[in-house]
Amino acid sequence: MTKPAESTALPAHARILIVRLSAIGDVLHVTSVVHNLRRLAPDAELTWLASPPASSLLENNPDIDRLLVWDRRTIDVAGAHLDLRTCWRELQKARALLAPYTFDIALDLQGLFLTGILTRLSGAKRRIGIHERHEGNPLFMTEMAPDIPDPHKIHRYYTALAPLGFGAETFVPGPVLELPKALDNFAETFWHAHGIDTTRPILMCCVRTTWPDKNWPPAYFGEALRALPEHVQIVFSGAKNDAPFIVEAQSVLARPALSIAGETSLTELAALLESAALLFTGDTGPLYIAEAVGTPTLSLWGPTMPEIYGPLTKGHIFLRSPYECTACCKTHCKRKNNGCMNALKPEVAADALQQFFAH
Question: What is the full DSSP assignment across 283-343?
Fold first, then answer.
C-alpha cells in the first residue's frame, strides 16, 4: 500500500531516476524541476528515462548525468490493440535498459500505469509519485507527494521533491534547453538558404496542435496575420502532415509566407525559434520550446488554461476564448464543433500582433 509522503532528508550522493517519458511540453516543464533538484542537491546522480521525440530535447541537458531513451510508441500501439506479447517484449527492453544502474530513489513525474511499472522496474527502494492522473500508478509507489491547490503542472511536478526535504519556497521557475554546439550557426544558414533576411523581424507561426480541440481554424491564422507590416517576415512551422493546413492559412493571408513544415528536428526548430522575434501558436510543444530558448510567444487558449499549462516565465501573451465552457481539458469537444476555439476571433489576435510589433 502506498504511504503518504514523509519529509526525509536526501542522502548524500543519492542516485535518482526521473521518469517522464513525454510529451514535449511536459518534458520541458520537468526540466525546471530537475534544474532545481540539481541546484539543491549538487552531489546527486541524476538519470532521466525519456521517450522520443521529446528525449532529443534532453540530450545536452546540463542538469542530468545520464539520459536513458526508451521508445514508448511501440507499447502504446500494442496496448491499444491488446497485443500483450509486444507489450511484454517492450517492457523487457526497458528492464534491460535500466538493469546496469542502481537507483536509491525514483521520481515518477508522469503518473501513468505504464510509468509506474517502469519506476518499479528501476529497482529503486523509494518510489515517489505525484497527485496527477494516477491510472493505478500509486500501486507501484512507496510514497505519494503532497497534493496542493495550485493547478499549474510545474508546481505539481515539483511536489515530488517535498518528500526529499525541498518545499515550494525553494522553487525557481524556468525550463532548461541546451542546444548542441553543432547548431550554433544553424539558424543563420537555414534562413539564408530559404531567403529570409535575419536583419528583419521573423514571426514564426504554428497552426496545429496534437489535440483536435486546441486547433484554431487555419483561416483565422491567415486573417490575424494579414494586417502585419510588410517588414515582418512570416514563417509557418510544423510537422509534414501540417502542410495542408498551412496552405489554407497562406491562401487567406494573401502575402508571401514561408512554410518549413517537416524540414527540421526539434532541436533545429529550437535554434530557429531562438532567432525569431515571436512565436504565434496554440497550446502545443513549440510554445514551450520557444519559452525555453527565450523567445516571446502569443498563444491561443480554449480547452486548456495557461494557469495549468502556460509558461511561468515573462514575455508571453495569452489570448483566451470567451466561450462559456472553456478549460474543459478534453481532447475532443463534447459539442463536436470546437466552439471555444472558434469563438476566439482573429481580430483579437491581429490586435495583439500589431501591438507587439509596434513596440
Answer: SSHHHHHHHHTT--EEEEESSS-HHHHS--SSSEEEEE---TT-----SS-TTSS-HHHHT
Tell me the residue type at 81: H
**Position of cell 513544415?**
261
Q: What DSSP line would sit under 140-195, residue for residue?
A: G-SEEPPP-S---HHHHHHGGGGGGT--GGG-------PPPGGGTTHHHHHHHHTT
Q: Are 107 and 128 a contacting pair, CB within 8 Å?
A: yes
Asked if 268 and 256 count as a contact pair (C-beta separation under 8 A), the reply is no
8 Å CB contact between 250 and 259: yes
Structural element, H or E, at residue 247: helix 243-253
Q: What is the DSSP string of 50-79?
A: E-TTGGGGGTT-TT-SEEEE---HHHHHHH
Q: What is the pLDDT of residues 108-139, one digit of tens each?
A: 999 999 999 999 999 999 999 998 867 899 99
What's 359's DSSP letter?
Answer: -
Q: State the pTM of this model.
A: 0.93
Phi then psi dihedrals of residue 268, to 5 deg: -65, -40
Q: Which three cell numbers stand for residue 45?
A: 546522480
| Distance of alpha carbon 293 from alpha carbon 177, whole angstroms | 7
Per-residue confidence band for 324, with pLDDT thresholds at 50, 70 and 90: confident
For residue 245, give the 3-state DSSP assignment.
Answer: helix
